[in-house]
Amino acid sequence: MNNADQKRYDAIIVGGGLAGLTSAVFLSQAGKKILLIEKNAEFGGLVNSFERDGFVFDAGARAILGVVLAMLKDLKLDIEVVSSKVSLGVEDKIIGIEGPNSVGEYRDLLVSLYPDSVEDIDKFIEVMIRIMKLIDIIYGIDNPLFKDIKKDKAYFLKELLPWLPKFMFAMSRIERLSTPCEEDLKELIKDPSLIDIISQHFFKGTPTFFALSYFTLYSSYVYPKGGTGKLAEALVEKIQAFNGDILPNTVIKKIHADQQVIVDENNNEYHYEDLVWAADLKTFYTIVSLDNLAPKIREKFETTKALMAKGRPSESVFSLYLEVDLPVSYFKKSFNGHLFYTPSRKGLGNINKSELKGMLEKWGETDKEEVLSWLDRFLENNTYEIAIPAMRDSDLAPEGKTGLIVSLLMEAELFYKVEESGWYEEFRREIENKIISVLSESLCPELKDKVEKQFSFTPLSVENRVGSTGGAIVGWSFEAPIPVVYKMQQVNKSVLTPIPNIYQVGQWAYNPAGTPTCIITGKLAADRIIKKHK
């Protein structure tokens, strides 16, 4: 067999994150000759772990939603998972989330902080419970995607058929809750600080149903023993067991859609029958060459490309990693291994909205001291996601020590501006030290003196490593027109591109995004290809 024959595949998948891995594993399981290409040495994208000084840290997702379990079961993947309990805290008040029964505790927490807003809080809790019930319906059965409905008659008759009318009812109600969470909360709550405390750890413009469903989803979080990266490792092993080819450290620079050929940075060519694009969608629409394709396809492609160009990436994330000379028990007495924590009930107000926008617009006139003053207030009033891997798996930190991951949402544009101004590293260090100071003064008094090492990933780190425009971790911003499918009833169409044998999957293919979206779109694309060639 010559080299050209060796590089011909039934399907090529570009992007080795969770979506690409999902497509690759199901295509290879079906007997397709596939090639999975990834720009980095490691696979997993934002579902990845790394080891440093005896600590294991998660590079992206801090836990995984239970929807993953259906895929693990279907593929017979041998991954041990443990429950990932979530806590929620404001100032010195912290509660553990144990499912729907914790709603009352959450209500009491809010009332203790905002005693003048009891009536508003009760109205909000009422809406939240209603959304939780709808989400319970949507996730009420095992996902049909991972079931052989033709063979599993009991599932079809006893679960799927009775569930479908309930699902359609729930979806019709959810459609009415697609407005931005902040707008709906303003209809229920007068105190702007209370609105912030409820909503500020979500992406700007997050739809109400998505934001307020999280209280339900928190209780379904699981954590793979050994770190979230164990999921990616298991999928890679399964792809290889199904005789799929994998190619790390390879960047695709051109797609010749009419010839069904992709070209890497070293000018190697790979021929495909079907292509699954599981990487940055803006990059895809930049590197495709249409040449001799039909005029209707080219016209539709150019229209879609223009929509993609107008779409904006969502906020990115700043993650601080701490190696701390304190035992896990020090933290465990106060909260669970996955904590959403706000050090001040004041809330961000306009700090992360009009103030940030104004500062970025007049950047040339803004001096460093003004930026640092803004940064102090931004970090003092923000909400942090704090993960402690060793609290879920004691093997992930040296004995007597703890590894912490502290994250918060931040705009990539701010980091672009700072880098252009020549003080990126100083800015990064300022954020690191300020976060440590804020948490020491509010949550963990001993933290400041017990940090042995610290390092961080910025939005630019995410962009460079994952190749995601703007370092976005969930695809498109809700604040700009979304150029992809964003209605759950249409998710099956989200994988289609204007080119019939090219599919798009992952965080850019459907909004709102996340690990379930990556898995679902990855599986949908694989199913379409398998069905097409049967």
Automatic annotation (TrEMBL):
<dbReference type="InterPro" id="IPR002937">
    <property type="entry name" value="Amino_oxidase"/>
</dbReference>
<dbReference type="InterPro" id="IPR036188">
    <property type="entry name" value="FAD/NAD-bd_sf"/>
</dbReference>
<dbReference type="Pfam" id="PF01593">
    <property type="entry name" value="Amino_oxidase"/>
</dbReference>
<protein>
    <submittedName>
        <fullName>NAD(P)/FAD-dependent oxidoreductase</fullName>
    </submittedName>
</protein>
<dbReference type="GO" id="GO:0016491">
    <property type="term" value="F:oxidoreductase activity"/>
</dbReference>
<comment type="similarity">
    <text>Belongs to the carotenoid/retinoid oxidoreductase family. CrtN subfamily.</text>
</comment>
<feature type="domain" description="Amine oxidase">
    <location>
        <begin position="18"/>
        <end position="530"/>
    </location>
</feature>
